């Protein structure tokens, strides 16, 4: 998007009117790391209306659990009931080449062709936590475009994949039958973040195993400390079959009930406020680190300190403090 062609107010108007091409181009813009594009993205985000709120649902699970299959079946269930659904799918990037396959749109063939659905795959690049660095901003764009539900499909890296909980209203964890015994369910980390645990592939020969696994996780959830943001009965475990469509409507009903309770009890607003504060601090740290890397004096000091560290002449913590001092000055430390 060239600077001459970019008018933030016009682009924002097109997005708010549901122009899918404008939305796709805007997501590409906010994902760019180019300084000029970052400035344009900031202008665009400021021009967008902020009175539209979608239900943001983060979806995680181990690779092979059937996240894409579930999201397509679940998304079709939602759009056929009259809702507009956006899917932000994060694909892992190669640590060697930096490339991504970005095949989620192909795997969700039926949903991608539905007029009430929008699917956008994005590379995770080097960002940790299961999401891409600008997934939160892409979510804001989808909200401004009038989507009712935004599904955020994470990379699927396991217990450490909790960053999506800082940008979603609901966190859904997909698990496979016979994925572990009951003690697996009380592991700290991703299990504590889940609002709903769905045992997928509860069909055919796996249905009996899924029933047993669901009961084990339901028991494990009762051992966890009750959270202030949950009504009685949450978090809970349910069985679903993405292939047969069983349990999809019940899962959505449970999500709607949880959202309604959180809105009525002020949890929804408090959570979004806390998330905004979290991302402000994250962006502030990133901006300061970028400034530090781009400052010639600080960059030279950093290079010198790295040599001293490798030679064993100085401790890393001391070296880092000296680089910061060279950037800010001792009177600002």
Helix share of residues? 40-55%
Number of helices: 13
Provide the residue-averaged pLDDT: 83
Strand content: 5-15%
Summarize the structure.
By secondary structure, this protein is α/β, with parallel strands linked by helices. The chain has helices at 8-16, 20-31, 35-47, 67-79, 104-107, 109-112, 135-144, 190-193, 207-223, 248-264, 267-294, 296-310, 316-328; strands at 55-61, 85-91, 117-123, 149-153, 170-175, 196-199, 236-239.
Task: Give structural notes.
The chain has 333 residues and is of the alpha/beta class. Helices cover 48% and strands 12% of the residues. It has a seven-stranded parallel beta sheet, with helices on both faces. Strand 6, helix 9 and strand 7 form a beta-alpha-beta unit. Helix 1 packs across helix 2 and helix 2 runs antiparallel to helix 7. It starts with 7 loop residues before the first helix and ends in a 5-residue tail after the last helix.
